[in-house]
Design a protein that fits this description.
60% helix
Amino acid sequence: MLPILVAWMVFVLSGASTLWAQPSPPKPAIERSPLLKEPTTPEEMFAAAVLTADLARLDLARLYLEQFEATEPDNETLIQLRDKYGTSDFVKLSLFKELQPNSQNLLDRLNAAARLQAADPAFVDTLIKRLSVNETERALATAELRNAGIQVVPEILRQMSLQEMVDQQDTLLLALVRMGPQVVPALTGAMDTPDERVRAAIIDALGYLKSPEAIPYLWFPAFDEQQPAGVQTSAKNALSKLLKSYPKLGLQFSSVTAANELRRLARLYYRTPQALPVDDDGNVHLWTWSDAVGTVVDKAISPQLASLYVATRFARQSLALSPEQPEPQRQYLAALLGLEVLRQGWDTPRVSTPGTAMYLGLTAGEETMAQVLAEALDAKRPSTAVPALEILGQLGTREQLISRNGTKSPVLAALNSPDPRVQFTAATTILKLDPKHGFSGSNRIVGILARALTDVNQPRAIVIDSDVHRASAVMGYMSSGGYAADMAASGRQGFELASTLTGVEVVLIHVNVQRWDLTQTLSNFRADARTSQLPIVLYGPGDLTDDLTRLVTRSAPATYIAESATVSDFLDQFFPFIKSVKSDPLTPQERDLQMSTAAYWLATIGSGSLSKIFDLSQVENELVLATENPAIATNALIGLAGVRTPSAQRRLADIAVNPQMIDGVRQTAANQLAYHIQQFGLMLTKDEVINLHAGWKNTENPDVKGALASVIGSLRPNPTIVSERLRAFPVPVAN
């Protein structure tokens, strides 16, 4: 019977019959619509688009969707359609590629309209009033609140806090529960409300909702002795319900469990920003209580920042439950330091005035800060590692450069961090500690400083591939992505480059790498402290992705991308990975500050006892380039004077006699040339000495001429020349 009925409906809808054959008209661009009547109103057009999409007539669905858009429906119309047909129909249309971008734009407009409506206190107030009219109105109002979503929760909570709404608390509580688990994030954020009555009601709602997401937020109010009795009872009841509902979590109900669980949560979110859900823009929606508006507010922030907020919350609660335990102390301080940096921005100078996390770190002592640094490096948290290093630079001792119990000093370990900020701060911290002897990694210091000295804000990549043509193509891709690429033909050569060059931020390895096979190459990269944290990209045929999953996981941070014939295909695979493991790039202000700081320390090394530990000859080229920058030329010249090579002495002489250079720079160059000759002896050729004399005689600026005179004197002139110079000096006139 059913097939007959379906056939009859098709017959009626189409208006065609094989019994009465008619001459076939010319076939239109779009086949005849199955609708008996063409839509004329916006609602009919939308319904027609949904129906024809269901019938796989996407050509017609697109036509009706375009007609609907042409009516320019306002937000009210969109909301009415959503209430009648549901959001699912809008979503369904957006999934058809044939209907995009129109269908996606329509869904975006609906979402925007829904957010505006939900954020309108008057709209929510109307629905709240309807909750108390009768059962029918209550059901309709609850349904509208549920459709409006989590954005209506702030107004519900605000009204719940009003004294005149005390009698309506149970009604509002029931409405929240009937809205379902979608409200849990806002309710957990509202648990910091100062109103004990509302806080207890929120906890009750979380218990009724039975969402496991609420469990972490109930441990503290359930076992904190400072909580009001009503709040504590509600939290214990809610926690008990949830733990019974989710026995697979295996959590025991006790204060010891609470303290341990809060420590675990603090550690989890500090180490794993990706544990928090993100929206389509990659942001986390963090709900927090605001006393200013008397309810919760929603902030869309980065996962790095949001995870630190959450880690700070749980670490502080763990510290309150177990104040003598060192782990929550370190967790709380580490999260606070990272949070302070990210909130203020990397450009903002860090200060240690009372009320700052930096000040708190100074009071925590050297041992605690060393542990905070070690954990920050392990968790890949530059925003904590950098201020921790700066604090150790103020209160640390040379003992920070000694490895203990087989564990490397965290300050030295920071030199091999993949983050350039951490590397640089580690280098300057070590210099502040004023080492007296060489140590493991000391050869890294001047290289890191030199990179900052000449940084052009272009990261470096190493491409390891025995096929020259394929490697050249990948290098071209990386160049298009903003990287300066170096090529290595073997795993061994690639490792040597990555472990010695400065500024390497990623290594790309073809799966058929030779002279060290792939497994051996990856093992060596991960075994050496200098390369253990470098991001690695394996590339090769696309069908090997699954086969290499375990190897990629063991080599983290790493990924596998398929060989590509175009730049865009390759970079579309590359950038999502590198963005997930790389910190924010240095700002222009940071680069300028690092440059001047690097020049200062290189000058300090070149002019003092530190030159016995740190060899400046390896960065001579960078120092020479830096002499051309007036902002740092003076310190670069002082540093260059510590390089024991003829080329360094020649560069100092050239600048000293160059009339095109700034007089102050020439004067410094002349003074440092004299120092260089005194320290290492004359290394200039005869012709270069003649040129130096000529420059001295032709110089008119008295300060520069005086500085050059010290050079001329250091050349040990013979008695005849000295006599000529003395006799040329006029006899002083008697006063």
